[in-house]
Design goal:
about 350 residues, mainly beta, 4-stranded mixed β-sheet, about 5% helix, elongated, disordered N terminus
Length: about 350
Amino acid sequence: MKIKTIGSIILFSLPAVQAADLFIDISAGNQNWDTSTNNWFQEAGLINPDIWENGDTANVSNTSGSNKDLLLQEDITASGLNHTGTGGLRIEDNGVAKTLTVNGSITGTQNIILQNGVTLTGNINLNKTSGNLAFNNGSSTNSGSIFNVGSTSRLQYNGTSSANSASVTLAGGSLALRFTNGSTNTLAIVGGDGSLINNRNSNGDVATVVINQLQLGTDGTIGTISASGSTGGNYNLELASGFTSQFDLNNSAGVLTNDFLDLGSDLFNLDVDGHTIALNLTGDALESGASFQLANNNDAITGTATFDTSNAMLADGLSWDFSQFNATGTISVIPEPGSAALLGLAGFAFVLRRRK
């Protein structure tokens, strides 16, 4: 085999080879990698493949200007993954499904794409300064996948990828959904503050995303998740039956604030049937007429939710009114029907006394 290097491009002159031989096995030989636990194939064009040993951080650079592949030969665990350069990194299996576990940060400036049988799991801080972390056809997350998505980062599910009850907290970042038409995927938790992107691009396409729990904001603070994206296709967004989402409400000297799910203009259809919405009220006591918009959809919210007000108690004579929630996403405080009737009778008696 003859090798020539021209800039960042490595050229190979090979005799007759099989397709598998077009990948270089970087797991053996001259880098002191622990080949008993870590085994990769590297496509020509990736340089400085500082692949981790026994849980270390991996640093991978692609200066080719185009996407390049790393093929997992085994299940691998790492404490971080950093990818830089001018081209994206595709991580695939070798024909048999593999799991990549990252307990730490995923950073860098280029797209990292999981596909073809790779599951990414672990407790992951996604803090890329540019580029996406994307799941393409055949890749997945699972119930052990916990993502904290930083303000400059985007986590995206595409095609036939599977969420499999992963949890996503947005720390100013975005969660983009581009699942295959007709598919259903479940996320265990969606929370924090950030953007929920409808990335469908075909008219008439509809996919369903089930969310077991909304946890807007962090550590009891008020939070907002706002929808954006294309109106070319809709998502059915379902808050799962039998699960509970927390919505924080606050009254500070008459200034009312609350967690808010802003689904925008026809980007998502919201179904809350069988879901429990737990209200957590802090600050000053509420008065009659106070109202909070928990969700905005432009279309009616479908299904019947149960509201848990055990942490949002009102003064005697007041009650919660949920009658407008399905129409506008709004809940409000009104006089209890009995109290209003008593006030009416008292006023009528006062008028009678004055007439005598």
